[in-house]
Design brief:
With 406 residues, the chain is an alpha+beta fold. 26% of the residues lie in helices and 28% in strands.
Length: 406
């Protein structure tokens, strides 16, 4: 059932089923055997231009999992991947390679590798399916086996079905390189993200917090107002803040504030952000704050340190007058890095396309990444926060969820 390096290369055969409940590998019921052209006609059903609006990739394993060590291994090295695509008519279809020892609807007795195209009768984006480690699309396909599955990556798409099948007909997969197929089809259909961003980054088994609000923008807040800029406009931001690259970053600090002022401690639950000072050759200096929240990345400019440390967008960070105030976590100096270099770093590291995640892609991760790059120091939030971060990364198999870009 699973693919292996010794399996025969794909010859274009399709196992087609328009009802996921009927697709039963354990009992040899795979649906109809047909060509890619026939499968395309069945999906389109007379439509000339059916759009693809979303693509999701699931990883799965079929091994008996007795402890977290084994589970952690399979998170980074699944047995295989399942691609699920949503069309603009609301239908979800999975694309998955299977290895069959007795080809269906064929007179040949030789084993065969087939592309299984299966229709799913549900939306995989609801909480039950997309946020848990046991993802229904894979479990439904292999309901008679013990399967562990999880959502690895998803993105919007602006392709169409005809383009997808035209691409499928042009692909040959020697030596059964089905992981490469998953990588290529994701890169082909995804609107922004690439498979390379997917490697080593899996979704946490806990529910993603705030990710549904993520706008993929950077908000530039300055004394004259604010600008919301998308990823393709980030070089425009560089021209706004440091067009000649002469605003050098000299001091860098990281502060933290409690997630709620109702808490009596901020040892674990806190928001962190970077504050830094720039100077140009004429001696003019400005203070800036840079942070990630559930909606965007915010870059703020102010005349004094207090104007960006204590305030964000005209609102005071801590309203309490007697207990809470921004707390310094660490500070350092920066050599030969300009504000323009920092903007380029954010663009090069694809920061606007990394959706906020309450555990693995949050404000603390972002502050650590930026502070480390600017000062070449490792930011330490303290024993308790570091322990929680370590447990989360061990659980998800992510040693560094946001690999540093030099």
């Amino acid at each position: 059932m699973t693919t292996s390096i010794s399996s025969p290369a794909w010859n274009g055969a399709v196992a087609f089923e328009d009802d996921v409940v009927k697709f039963d590998i354990a009992n040899g019921r795979f649906g109809e055997r047909m060509t890619l052209d026939e499968a395309e006609r069945r999906i389109l059903r007379g439509s000339d231009n059916m759009k693809i609006v979303k693509i999701e990739v699931f990883g799965y394993c079929m091994a008996q999992i007795f402890d977290f060590t084994i589970f952690k291994y399979y998170l980074s090295k699944p047995d295989s991947h399942l691609v699920i695509i949503k069309f603009d008519n609301g239908e979800w279809w999975s694309f998955h390679f299977i290895y069959v020892s007795t080809p269906i609807g064929s007179t040949s007795e030789l084993p065969e590798s087939m592309l299984a195209i299966v229709k799913h009768g549900f939306d995989t984006t609801n909480e039950t399916n997309s946020t848990g480690i046991f993802a229904s699309p894979v479990l439904e396909l292999f309901k008679n086996f013990q399967i562990w599955s999880w959502l690895v990556k998803s993105d919007e798409s602006k392709s169409n079905v005809k383009q997808l099948f035209k691409w499928l007909r042009s692909k040959s997969l020697p030596n059964n390189q089905f992981t490469d197929f998953t990588k290529e089809i994701f890169n082909k259909l995804a609107r922004i993200k690439t498979w390379e961003r997917l490697q080593g980054v899996v979704r946490s088994p806990w529910k993603q917090k705030g990710g549904s609000e993520w706008s993929g923008t950077i908000r530039y807040i300055h004394p004259g107002g604010r600008e919301d800029l998308e990823d393709h406009q980030i070089m425009d931001l560089k021209d706004m803040v440091d067009s000649d690259g002469k605003n050098s970053i000299v001091k860098v600090k990281v502060y933290k504030i409690p997630l709620s002022e109702r808490y009596w401690t901020n040892l674990i639950l806190f928001h962190s952000y970077v504050v830094f000072q720039t100077q140009n050759r004429e001696g003019e200096d400005w203070w800036w704050s840079l942070e990630k929240n559930t909606q965007c990345i915010a870059l703020q400019k102010g005349a004094t340190e207090a104007s960006v440390r204590d305030w964000l967008g005209g609102e005071k960070r801590c309203l309490c007058r007697w207990y809470w105030k921004p707390q310094l976590v660490d500070e350092g100096t920066c050599a030969e890095i300009s504000l323009a270099n920092l903007i380029e770093f954010l663009h090069r590291n694809d920061e606007l396309n990394i959706t906020y995640h309450g555990i693995t892609e949050n404000c603390q991760c972002h502050a650590q990444e930026v502070f480390g790059w600017l000062t070449d120091k490792e930011l330490n939030y303290g024993r308790f926060a570091s322990a929680v971060t370590g447990i989360n990364r061990w659980w998800t198999g992510i040693s560094n969820p946001r690999p540093r870009t030099e």
